[in-house]
Amino acid sequence: MGRSYTEDDINQLMLGDGNSMTGDMGMFFLKACLESGISFAAGYPGAPTSNVMDLLADSNDMILRKSGIYFESSTNEAAAATKLYLSINEKIRGFVNWKVVGTNVASDVLAHISSSGVKGGSVVLIGEDEECISTTVQMKSLIYASGFLLPIIDPIASPKSIHYLTKKAFELSEYCNQPVMLLFRSLSSNMIGTAPVSNNQIPKISNLNKSPEFLPESSRVPIPPDTLVHAKEKYHERLPKAIEYIRKNKLNVSKSGYHSQNIGIITQGGLFNSLMTVLSDLKLGNLFGDVAVDLLTLNVLFPLDPEEIKAFLIGKDKILIVEQGEPNIIEREIKTIAFDSKLDIEIYGKNRESGEGYIPLTEALNYDVLLSPVAAFFLEQTSLPQISYIRGFLDEREEINEKIASDIMTNWIPRSPSFCTGCPERPVFSALKRTEEEMNTRFIRLIDIGCYTMAKLSPFNMSDSCTGMGSALDVGMGMANLYDKPIIVVLGDGTLFHSGLRNIDNAIHNNLNQIYQSNNLDKKKANVLVFLLLNYHTAMTGDQANPMTLNEPRNSTQGVNMRGEVVERVNLTNLFKTHGARWVKTIPSYDILKMKKTISDALKVPGLKIIISDGECMLEKQRTIRKENSKRLKMGKQVEIPKVQVDPRLCSGCWPCSEYVGCPSEGKIPSPNPLKEGFIREMLPTCVGCGVCSEVTQKFGLCPSTYNYKIIKNPSLWTKFSYQSQKMIINALRKI
Known about the structure:
Elements: H1 7-12, E1 20-24, H2 25-35, E2 40-43, H3 50-67, E3 70-73, H4 77-81, E4 94-99, H5 102-116, E5 122-128, H6 141-148, E6 152-153, H7 159-176, E7 180-185, E8 192-196, H8 226-248, E9 253-255, E10 260-268, H9 272-281, E11 293-298, E12 300-302, H10 306-313, E13 318-322, H11 329-340, E14 346-348, H12 367-381, H13 387-411, H14 426-439, E15 444-447, H15 472-482, E16 487-492, H16 493-509, E17 527-534, E18 558-560, E19 566-568, H17 572-578, E20 583-588, H18 592-602, E21 607-614, H19 618-634, E22 639-646, E23 666-670, E24 679-683, H20 692-699, E25 706-713, H21 717-735
Parallel strand pairs: 2-3, 2-4, 4-5, 5-7, 6-7, 10-11, 10-13, 13-14, 15-16, 16-17, 17-21, 20-21
Antiparallel strand pairs: 1-8, 6-12, 9-11, 18-19, 22-25, 23-24
Helix pairs in contact: 2-3, 2-7, 7-8, 9-12, 12-13, 14-18, 15-16
């Protein structure tokens, strides 16, 4: 997710011809962009491209600003996508980025940009995430690319490939006059590698060398009848030029098999590493890229070159297409090319009910998922000499998998994703859960997209919806008309500025305060409570800055953006009231009793209410605290580190406290009481002392076993005196 780059990392981005760079794939992508002479970069920090946003921020002072490159951390993907307009009228190069679901937000802008076409090379970096490691739904960018007629590159996951194909993406964009999508996958974006690099290019138009004129072509504005002309251009001019460039530059990679040329595999660049590992283990290839059968790796998923595909298919008896996800666009197109070319060839792809294919429809095609289908294809459709080895390998692996599964079930403690230790969002759901129980009713819980989406999981189990970023209150609008229940809506500050603020406007415009059931003329106002989780960062993608991020030294009015510039922070209370909200209160996140009382009071008031839960993301807060404590220790000053612990003499191991907390720093140990079998709670050293555990156990009336304490380093003379005095008094009282 979030990442910090050192000065040494940034210095590598300035290396030139004859040098090699070592870093993650985000560094190789940005290095290729700098070598391509970009003038702008903008994006929304969605994983797995958030490391690129972090890298842009960390390199802004040392590289971007000195080169005149404009960098923007946009509030959402549509705002970022608009920067592609800069490439329409001039040969200005640049890129924008977001995660795969962000294309939904940017799609309106992309549709218009792809209609106008571009003169300058422009790249859309998209974090593809079939594993759903860091996104909510499984999506396929190829659908948008083919719909908008945007070439899409899925590079083999290696530093050399990503560096090379990024530079080619800018050239392809200018050659065919279309933006080019480039995929960054969850696992590949975090790879570390080494590859040769070249000199950076200073952009001709930049912050340091602004163009004195702007001469737009009116025909490029996508308004009918020009849009009809654009459509013809896209299919009759731009698409053929894209195919011509792909063919001339051999962007796709073909390998001849050392055992058989009448069997072939066609895959995509992002799956190449997993597929080659499978083939290597089956003795059908090796990790140096040699293969037993012909292999075509498509680094460009769209458009496909019919001549290239036809040339690969000719002379083959059977083909296996290894394609990620549904719909199987590549498989369909290759089958169409084979049919149009009148080739007598058996093509196997996705495994459907007919049983004619092998590759799973929807799973992320990693090594474990690919192994059995690929092996089955070779066992059933070929007679290669490796067949007997493949059967033995699969039998042996099945035994190993059974042993591993048994070991996991026996020895490992199951854990689901959880809020971080000390997360300020946890006490909100603790308070909501307790209030719900005390009111003896079940709220309708509409949880938006962010870290707090995990409220769906144990121990809270409080999420009833997930309908897209910034949409939860809109769902509540509909439900307020049809259900006589309290409605709870939760969203974060990053989501608010991404797309959530329009919810407030929609609620006010549609008179949420006065919604009533008209069928019996019994006026009943809606009861909707919105929680705005103010944690000062876009935390779910790695703590990037948003309009609420605090500046140092911290105060209530000044913030800072990802370029490190001091800006004015938004006053949320004034913002909500200006938009028409009447009931707005701010509560410290960790004050659970006050939070619980405010929830109860709010639900007694009809209409729309907003509670701002104020608590900085604990991960970011701890980074600041550790720096401050380190400075104080070096100066010989006292440092206090808050902690929470459980008294083993009082804890009985009944565990109701965990139903309101679920902290990763909560552990268990065998009961020291010989009369009490089983386990009791303890807090692990990772505890940051947020106090939620003790608040829940004591103020919810559960038990007195959990308490707060402090570790004091470099104690002052007064602290030492107070400690000794208290110790003496306690010892004296014990003797009474």
